[in-house]
Amino acid sequence: MPVTAAAVPLPLFPLHTVLLPGAPLGLRVFEPRYLDLVSECGRGGGGFGICLILQGEETGAPATPAAFGVEALIEDFGSDRGGLLALRVRGGRRFRVAGVQVRDNGLLVGSVHWCDAAAAPAPRLRPEHAVMGTLLGELLEKVGGEYASANLRRLEEAEWVGWRLAELLPLSDAQRLALLQEDDPHRRLDCLLRWMDE
């Protein structure tokens, strides 16, 4: 697995959902530990990690996060109708959690290794996955929104096609987590093909 040599600290926001690379996610923030996290990100200009909760809840005592997650980069923020902080984040790099510490305020901080190689060339779809690019093109046409202006050349990129299908298809959190743990974009597409046939 291609990971960085040294682990880096990353504050974690465990959720009952899986954030995928490139995918948007809306969050409502009200617990003091997560308000502190957002302030810290604002001061430092960085992101935080989102991991699927394996045991526990989103509020209260620190939950047990999955060993793999995705960096959340804040794109926009404001207040919802109830006056709570509302964030719009987008998935960035994948990471593997090597260890976790709990701060006094209950915030989890992971010691993480980044999984994705920097500036690696985007692998192209293989012939056996061409149907996946076609399917994604049809889905994007129906979904519209931010995808209405997607660059159609990306439909030839194995990694982008895999992540967008994983985002749009009705997969379970366990399936999305399995894809996060897979480094090879072609094997991710193999998994998606197998699940679609089941």
From TrEMBL:
Domain Lon N-terminal residues, every copy: 8-198
The keyword Protease appears for this protein: yes
UniProt keyword Protease present: yes
InterPro entries tied to this protein: Lon_prtase_N, Lon_prtase_N_sf, PUA-like_sf
Keywords: Hydrolase, Protease
Single GO biological process annotation from the record: proteolysis
Molecular function terms from GO: peptidase activity
Highest taxon listed in the record's lineage: Bacteria
SUPFAM superfamilies: PUA domain-like
Gene3D superfamilies reported for this sequence: BPP1347 like domain, LON domain-like
PANTHER family in UniProt: ATP-DEPENDENT PROTEASE LA (LON) DOMAIN PROTEIN
Listed name of the protein: ATP-dependent protease
Organism of this sequence: Pseudoxanthomonas broegbernensis
